[in-house]
Write a structure and sequence with these properties.
Layout lengths: L2 H17 L6 E5 L23 H13 L4 E5 L7 E2 L2 E2 H11 L3 E6 L12 E5 L4 H8 L3 H9 L6 E7 L7 H10 L3 E8 L13 H16 L11 H6 L9 E5 L2 E4 L16 H10 L3 H14 L1
Parallel strand pairs: 1-2, 1-9, 2-5, 5-6, 6-7, 7-8
Antiparallel strand pairs: 3-4, 9-10
């Protein structure tokens, strides 16, 4: 990350805390809800299977930039399926960088070829060892490992949603992150229990066990992108919601925090670590701020 960008983000954080502002800094654009998988825990794929056109995505990028968004994510569906007017996701990443976004990340299930050296991070879903990942996502583990090995840059961050199926696999995913040269780190979430996926949710006790394991691995210097100073808040879901500093744009609709904002009662059961981390930072938790600074400097 460039020093001047770091200073500006720091200034944004300080002013947000001091003046209790709700202005967003992180935005996500959903480029498509089309996906080639049907994962057990997912509630957002293939509702319409629409690939949004380039001109619409460009307008949404410009809109978010004018609102002050400087950290941008491209998501799906499966994000790397996006094609429009002879443009690919790589073109969007380059254009976002040229537009002035400080950090541009993408989220993918890893089943497509990975050629995005311009992205700051490629958040790639890996949900356990081969057995447990394949139970959740179909027979895709070996394809993903091959695509990781053949990726054109070392900007991959594994992205694991911990649930009842894979809660025993934290160590195995961390081992992959540590051993593969193209992987920079691993980031965890807990399963957020959308109405049709309630059986995958973890209890408070199970969440604590998982966070204890992640903390142990952080102390053992595994490359983990989460903030251990936020774990107690995350386990007990006692962080402020929604996160006003994050927004999502999908097909012209702007939502605060995430697409789950419209589901009654779901905010109180949020499993997204980053949402907790951001709300804690912008509510003035000094320990979490310091933890984020060190983590972001190391991995971005």
């Amino acid at each position: 990350m460039k020093l001047n960008h770091l200073i500006k983000l720091g200034s944004f954080g300080i002013s947000t805390v001091l003046f209790q502002r709700k202005k967003p800094i992180l935005g996500t654009i959903i480029v498509t809800d089309k996906c080639n998988l049907n994962c057990k825990h997912c509630s957002v794929n293939n509702h319409n299977a629409v690939i949004h056109p380039y001109e619409q995505i460009k307008q949404e990028m410009e809109f978010l930039y004018k609102k002050g968004i400087r950290i941008l994510f491209f998501c799906g569906g499966e994000t790397l399926l996006w094609r429009s007017e002879n443009k690919t996701l790589r073109d969007l990443v380059i254009e976002a960088k040229d537009m002035g976004f400080y950090i541009v990340n993408i989220v993918t299930n890893g089943t497509q070829k990975i050629d995005l050296p311009e992205a700051d991070l490629i958040l790639l879903s890996l949900d356990g060892d081969r057995e447990h990942h394949n139970i959740i996502r179909g027979n895709t583990y070996d394809v993903i490992m091959k695509n990781i090995d053949e990726a054109t840059s070392d900007n991959i961050c594994l992205y694991m949603a911990i649930n009842q199926i894979n809660k025993s696999c934290i160590q195995q995913v961390c081992d992959v992150a540590k051993d593969k040269m193209n992987i920079r780190a691993v980031s965890f979430n807990f399963h957020t229990p959308y109405p049709e996926t309630l059986d995958l949710a973890l209890s408070v006790y199970e969440k604590q066990q998982c966070c204890d394991k992640i903390t142990e691995l952080i102390h053992r210097e595994y490359p983990i992108f989460n903030l251990k100073s936020a774990f107690d808040y995350i386990v007990h879901n006692n962080f402020p919601t929604p996160c006003y500093q994050c927004v999502v744009m999908e097909n012209g609709k702007l939502s605060i925090c995430g697409r789950c904002i419209d589901v009654p009662g779901l905010c109180e059961k949020c499993g997204y670590f980053f949402a907790a981390e951001y709300t804690l930072i912008f509510s003035g938790k000094i320990k979490v701020m310091v933890d984020m600074l060190k983590t972001y400097l190391r991995y971005i």
